Structure formats: C-alpha cells, structure tokens
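One chain is below:
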Amino acid sequence: MAQFPAPPVGPGGGSWLVLDRFIHRTDRDAEDGGDGTASELCYTCTDRPIRASIRVADPPAVSRLRLHWPGRREFRGLVEPHVIAAHDHAILFEATVPLEDPMCCGNTYSFPIDHFVYSAFSSPPSLHRLPVCLTGGVSTPDEDIYFKPYQRRQQRLMLEEEMGILCHGRRGEFTVVDFTKFGPEGELCLLHHRAPPPAPASQQKKDIEMQWRVKKVLFPKGPSAHYWITDTIVPVAGRFLCWVDCYQGILVVDVLHAKGNSSKDYQLRYIPLPEEALQSDRLDPDGDCPDPARRVGIGADGTLKLVCISRPRSAFTIRSWTLPDINQTKWLEGDTMGAAEFWGLCKAQGLPQVKPTFPLVSLAHPHEFFFLLEEDHTTYWIVEVNIRDKVLKSSAIYINEEEEGCTPDRARRNVFDGDSFIPSAFSCYLGMNATKSYELSKMMQKEKQLRVAQRKSQTEGVEGACC
C-alpha cells in the first residue's frame, strides 16, 4: 500500500496546517519584523524584488501566506495573488505582474502571470520563480515587441484548478504539473525542479533541466471528459498526483514516471467513486463555484478519503469512504454522522447550528474532518469533528485577509464567502523559525473571538431592550 510517512511536529504542537487560498500582500519587508518564516529574496519577471513568509496557525485555525512586494503598483480590478496548491515543504502560488512601461498599462489583461514556489526545505525558506512556458501561447511579433518581457497571451494558458505540485526525493525536489484539454487531446505540462547542484560547473545543466515539458496523455475509459470538473488535486505517497472530480472519480498520474524522457503518450488511470456517491449531481453543474458538499483528501494513514454532505439542509448526513490502496479501485465505507448529532455538538459549544460546508480531510487523525460554518456574512467558523467518536474537538474563527494588520483605510482586496482550504504539512518543516508567527496567530484568534462575542452581546442587549 502506498502511504505517506508520519510528518514531524510543528512549532505549535501540530504536524500540519489549514492554508487559505487568499494571500496577504504588503509593501513591508518581512525581514523588518524579524519573521523567521521569511524566504530569501526573489524577483518577478519585471525584475521587482519579492519575498514570501507565512502566518502559521494550528488547525482548525487558518494559516495564510504573506507576499512582501514593495513598489507593486495598484490597478483597479487586478486579480490578487493567491495560492494554487501545496504539498509537504512547498506552496505553489501565482501573481499577476504589472508591466513597467506606462504605455502598456491600459489593459491589465495583458499583464503576465508569474508562478512561484515557496519552499521550507531549507533555512531560510527559498522562493523560486518558475520559468515561463511559451509553448501553446499566442505570438504576434509586431505587437509583442512592445510588451517587456512578454504579455500574457504569449504564455501557455494554465488554469489554476488544473495545476498541482508534488514534492519527492530527499533533497527538496518538486514537480509542478498542469493538465490541459481533458479528453483525447489532453496534455500534461511538467516542470521538474532538482536539488541544487553540488558544484558551480553544473549550473548550465540545472538551467536546462528547469524547463517545461509537454507530454500527450491517453484518456482512460469511464469518466466523461466533457463533464469533468476538477474539484481538487491530491498528492499521494510522494509519487502520484490525483485530479479529482467529486462527482465522477479520480484520474491518477504517476508523476515520477511521467516526468521521464520517454516520448510515448502517458496513459492515465481512472478510479471511479463508490457507487453510492455516483448517485448525486453537483449543485453547480457548470463548476463556476467551488463545490461546498464534497472533498477528497489524503488522510493521516496515507489513504485517500472521500467525505460527502448530503443535500437536504434540515436532515443532512455526513458520510465518508476510504480508498485503502491507490493501486486499487475498491472503496470502503466509513463513518457517518447525522444533522441532529452534528448540531448537538455545535449547540454544546455555542457555535451556529447551520449546515456545514466545505469539508476537509485531516492530515493528522484518520477519523476527523473539518467543516466551515457560516454564522453571518462576516463571521465564519472552522470546526474539527471526529465523526466516529461523535466529538467536536476544537473550533476557530476565520481571520479575514484585511485583518492581517492592515490600516483601516486600505480597500478590501479579498472577499471571503466560503471556499475550500488546502491541507499542508508545510509547518513541520519550519521548526522553531515559526514560533513568532504562531504566537501572532494565537493573538489574532483570541482578539477576533472577543470582538465577535462583544458584538453578539451588544446585539442581544438591543433586542432585549426592544422587547
């Protein structure tokens, strides 16, 4: 059976973190505050300095990447940097980079996209800007000469929901994979980052190896390529990346095999969901919004787990299944929990009794899952529930991105109205370097819970006076 090794313990006593997709972008340099999670300096494609750090929190509290980008110009409607994927010591994110020439700034859609990998394998952490992939992009030489270094249409179109990252080996290696054109014309675009070479003489070879490679794939029988919607991409056993449609099944890519030099088309493998899970349709058939009812993730024992929340709002049921072996297709039915049991646990801890959404598989405990509870449009809770033992183990309030020490007059850049989070073992690679970051998270969590409690008390007082 292909399994993960147990991760070590991180600075806050946990072995993993719940990572938000929103990134807090700031002009401040992380080194000014003595942040031990700050990466080495890197540069955008326009040669602007950039650095990453992370605010680490123990689950179920949410951790958030911070991007230190001094001098980045503000443009109305420009998409903010955001996390795409994470695995072990690496976090993959993307950022739209404003062009330097004022003549090219009229159309923000022409701004190129940089992809970065923030890695805690070394100390201090490293930040790698991935080389641009122009294979499959659109070139118009007469127009392109005005955009330096290049405009977005010249880049290969890589959708964030189809990109994954896999860490492997013992020297900090990782491979980024993009899946394009599901179906008979499908392609994998792979970038393999090797460990630093031992001698400067091999620098040229290193640069050659850090290039994207495109490989045709053979789509398997079973899934509908036309209706396929990728809900998540799950790394398994330091070898596989799994593209998951939570209403069809799993497409398995053996990354270590696919990144080889063979010119043959790569054969994908398909694992259908358990029969009971195939009986329901997704709420949003177009897949424009993240699915709030299902999730597939890797468990503490290294096995894939599926968790589903049935559709009825008042009588929902939480069900789970386990795939014991990535090389097989047989799912085993797991634990269940009904609405009355779930709401009873919430009521006992003073939490909102609403239907849970956006389930997440725990990386630390095999029978525990995390759920998002919406108290109101500004207040969300994340709860950790053991559905086998029927215990609500802990809860945390969601910290909005603009609450990351911003000035009151800063415009709101990211609006959270519910989304899936990313499980990651990143924190256990930071060691004691994240102690200051961890203490900051505890303080922010305590302060926001106090503010929410005070607001509730005031609201109840006004309602009582009216009666």
